[in-house]
Specification:
heterodimer; A: about 210 residues; mainly alpha; Arc Repressor Mutant, subunit A; 3 domains; two-stranded antiparallel ribbon; 9 helices; 2 strands; about 65% helix; elongated; B: about 200 residues; Rna Polymerase Sigma Factor, Chain: A; about 0% strand
Chain lengths: ~210, ~200
């Protein structure tokens, strides 16, 4: 194959690829795309010609809808301004969180499929508890982390025990001060979902 | 996947740190937001300032966007608030209340295309817009009937590909092809008008 033929073949292939990418972008902007194709479309859109195609096709749509007589777009200026902004690292979206929990549950169910009926019931309960725990971690931003227990709340726990006729619990008086000092000096950010369990663990039974 | 789901997919990518996905949202909604803001703000330069501010505020607020509302209603609301704040600032002139839209009427699509923006556009911009409108009309008229119907059902009526396939009694693959070919034909007609840097609309 001589170089001219090679160039022609490459050009034809490139044109075909380009047309394919443009059709994919056209379908993606209408939501007519399989989940596994989304990454391909986003890869095409990451290139400048892909971005141009996306903009052009939306412009065509706006023109058909009669939005052509607006001022010129300001996407370039906005893009420059956004480039100066820090990238967002937000908690995963609701859909992603739900998918993560569903995956977790499905994995647990698969792993217990060989057990008997009774075993599956117990294992299901355990799996649900595990998903609940995962949910607690995932939704940690929405969980109001309890503050250091106040004397009033500790007294309420002790009173409740008296009412039930259970031996009253005694709280070590110095523990709140210790816990507060610990939280101030230690890096416990990574433990934030667990923090709610720390305080009950330090209530000791009366002798 | 609905139009809203496409936006949500892009939003989640932005929330994961992908700034390019936000650029795609800007390219998709900038004209609608411009049109909306132009109902409040008269000067075209000021419209662009307010639109930029709205998108930047939206970007900064995206970590809190959970997808309970559609992205476009969210960005429209931000844009309206930006425009109102802009007008309320002491340095700005007061626009008569009758010129403003009501809070309930925040859909850029419902804006009458023949009013409002003529105060904003310069004569050059008006001429360019007229040329574009004529080119689009010419391209639409030149399309084969089935392509014109498919793209009209999609762009104006907002039908999904499945609905268009049912309406036109053809396979969904044919709908995909017709819509794409119609867009390409119109884009080809528009390209000479947009190919210079000054006339770039995005």
């Amino acid at each position: 194959m001589n170089s001219e033929m090679k160039n022609t073949t490459v050009a034809t292939s490139s044109t075909a690829d380009s047309a394919l990418a443009r059709e994919q972008i056209s379908r993606w902007m209408d939501g007519d795309i399989a989940p596994h194709e989304i990454e391909l479309a986003m890869t095409a859109l990451a290139r400048e010609e892909g971005r141009y195609c996306w903009a052009e096709m939306h412009f065509v749509g706006d023109c058909i809808r009669g939005l052509e007589n607006t001022p010129k777009g300001c996407a370039e200026a906005i893009r420059a301004a956004i480039a100066a902004e820090p990238a967002i690292i937000a908690p995963a979206g609701k859909r992603l969180r739900v998918q993560a929990q569903e995956r977790s549950l499905m994995t647990a169910m698969k792993s217990i499929s060989h057990l008997g009926r009774g075993g599956r019931a117990w294992a299901t309960a355990a799996a649900v508890a595990a998903v609940g725990f995962v949910g607690t971690v995932v939704y940690k931003d929405q969980v109001v982390a309890p503050q250091v227990a106040t004397a009033a709340s500790v007294v309420t726990v002790a009173d409740a025990d008296v009412i039930k006729g259970v031996a009253p619990t005694k709280v070590r008086a110095d523990f709140n001060a210790y816990l507060q000092a610990h939280q101030e000096s230690a890096d416990i950010s990574s433990l934030s979902p667990m923090r709610q369990y720390l305080r009950p663990a330090v209530i000791v039974q009366a002798q | 996947m609905s139009d809203r789901a496409v936006d949500q997919e892009l939003v989640e990518r932005v929330q994961a740190g992908d700034k390019r996905a936000f650029d795609l949202l800007v390219l998709k909604y900038q004209r609608k937001v411009q049109r909306l803001v132009a109902r409040f703000v008269r000067d075209s330069g000021e419209v662009d300032d307010v639109v930029q501010e709205a998108f930047i505020k939206a970007y900064r607020a995206l970590p809190t966007f959970r997808g309970d509302a559609a992205f476009y209603t969210w960005i429209y609301r931000i844009a309206i608030n930006c425009a109102k704040n802009y007008l309320a600032s002491p340095a700005r002139r007061i626009v008569p209340q009758s010129d403003l839209i009501s809070d309930d009427d925040d859909d850029a699509e419902s804006f009458d295309r023949n009013t409002g923006l003529h105060d904003v556009a310069t004569p050059d911009a008006e001429y360019a817009s007229k040329q574009i409108a004529e080119a689009v009309n010419r391209a639409m008229a030149a399309l084969p009937e089935d392509l014109r119907t498919a793209v009209t059902l999609r762009e104006i009526e907002g039908l999904s590909y499945e609905e268009i396939a049912a309406a036109m009694d053809c396979p969904i693959g044919t709908v995909r092809s017709r819509i794409f070919r119609a867009r390409e034909a119109i884009a080809t007609e528009l390209r000479p008008l947009l190919d210079t840097r000054e006339d770039r609309r995005w």
